[in-house]
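Let us work through a complete example step by step.
Step 1: write down the sequence.
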Amino acid sequence: MNWLGKMISKENQIQNGEYESIVAHKMLDLFIIVATLLAASWLYLGNIPKNYFILAGLGCVIYLLFAQNFELYRNQDFTTTFQKIQRLTACWAMTVLVILMLAFFAKRSEVHSRVVIAIWLMAVPYFMVTARAISRFSKKKLFAEDQYQNKAIVIGATEAGYHMAGALGKNDSILTFEGIYDDTEKNTDQRAANQADGNVAYPIKGSIEQALVLAKSRELKHVFIALQPLGTEKVKALIQSFADSTARVYVVPNMQTFDLMQSRWRTINGVPTVSVHDTPFNGVRSAIKRVEDIVASTIILTLISPVLAVVAMGVKMSSSGPIIFKQKRYGLDGKEILIWKFRSMSTQDNGSVVKQATKNDPRVTKFGAFIRKTSLDELPQFFNVLQGRMSIVGPRPHAVAHNEEYRKIVEKYMLRHKVKPGITGLAQVSGYRGETDTLDKMEKRVEYDLKYIRTWTLWLDIKIIVMTVFKGFVGKTAY
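Step 2: predict the structure and record it as tokens.
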């Protein structure tokens, strides 16, 4: 499919106008970050100390790093207004969090005015959102005669076509979905499937020839081809036909047949590929996740150090044996790791057969029952996070014996190991914590673990940590 490779390569080359728009957005955001801080300093203090210039520069650098992670400047035409505001706010919130942590550890927070910093932190996202709203409004007004550039259609009443139509139809970005075009009869099965997915079943507005006429007459700008299979002569001829227009042409593979997880395009020596099961932690994202783990675990360990000492004494006094229980688990990529827990049982199962704790389990000590119920036994795992074996948030690690058992009977079980195991996770805050005495419970836990991997964002990690604080420590099924 060399023709597809050429198309992908061409799409990946950002056009001059788009590139300039991205640069303009970045420069405007950086200007707002710097100008807002300096203006707040001037208005409140009457001058601008040197340390505020340093702080403004640091804010710009950190913001740009997080902006790449949140994909703040990518796919502007295909991003809804809510998504833009959500990403921008989350990006600035993480920037603020890192700045405050750095100031705390460097003991530099006292050299800055709290009023100036508060104004800066609150005003920046307001001005950024306002600037984007003005830019969008101005673009619509100034280029009203070129509204054809916003119009998009889908070619193909197929499963992929209806999914694409649903995505475009829900989109409140600058694109306007005009409808589906196809030469075949309306596919009622696909309409029913589309409705079952919660999307509107869009009618076929016309033939492919009519769509071609619209594109050539500059009545629309974006054409999404969802005919299947993509490699047929018919599809190649259709793409060639649209080359006689100025429309942007996209191909829509029928990826609904796969259970995609962090899918992304890659070109290997000119050969295009798409990953089906991948990890969300590549490049900058991996570094951000690691920084999150190091900073958060360091702060938490500092705060809970008295609790660690008290629990350690309780374990030692309640029964004979070591304070820390080390057990083999599977970590990232299925590699065996040792995780630490406060010992809560009279036995230390760590072999090929490990029995899960059950209600009124005789192996659990009285003090052990308490720390298991309150998750205090998990606290030493913050040291595992510092070591790099685990993350604060991720799928909970299971004993090696349980892994080998469930990987044979639970579909996609081993995909949990595309990321580091976590102290808490989406499954735990969603009610699937503790004993998995039925297959259904384990399947639901795996379902939430994979959902976390598919949808990972830094903001999701923050939400899970907050939810854990309020409802994730104590559970009825934690024995």
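Step 3: interpret the result. Residues 1-17 have pLDDT under 50 and may be disordered.
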